[in-house]
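Aim 2 progress update. The chain analyzed this quarter is reproduced below.
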Amino acid sequence: MNHRKSFTSLIISASMLSGLLFTSATNVNAAKAKWHSGTPKVLHGSWAAKKTNGGSDGKTTISNQKINETHRFAPINPETITKLKYKKTGKQKYTIKGANMSYASSGIISKYKFKVKVHNHNQIYFSGIRTGKFGDAAIYHRK
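Predicted structure tokens:
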């Protein structure tokens, strides 16, 4: 009877240990966010922002391939960010990076990185991470 109890406890211990190893290995892989090309579908469309904390005051259009921003003070020369990639950093939170290639022939390539939080279908919080002046910090509403 003693051998049966020790055998049973050995099997239970081995099962728990293998389950623990599998769970920890799964959590390590899940923590690594993967960069995807383009932008998240939830952000596609036209957005308008009011200036907050040094951010822009204009219209922003987001598609899978590019982000266009027309400033209120410079509607003739909109900024276009291309070569977009994004990763999901949390629930309804994304980091997006891209480059402004408009002046690439002059040797000027501006790189941008943004953090985006989706509040709901009609409102997002868009903040730049000081690699460029684009969209420093603003709440955008769907147009």
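The chain has one helix and nine strands. Residues 1-32 form one domain. These observations will guide the mutagenesis experiments scheduled for the next reporting period.
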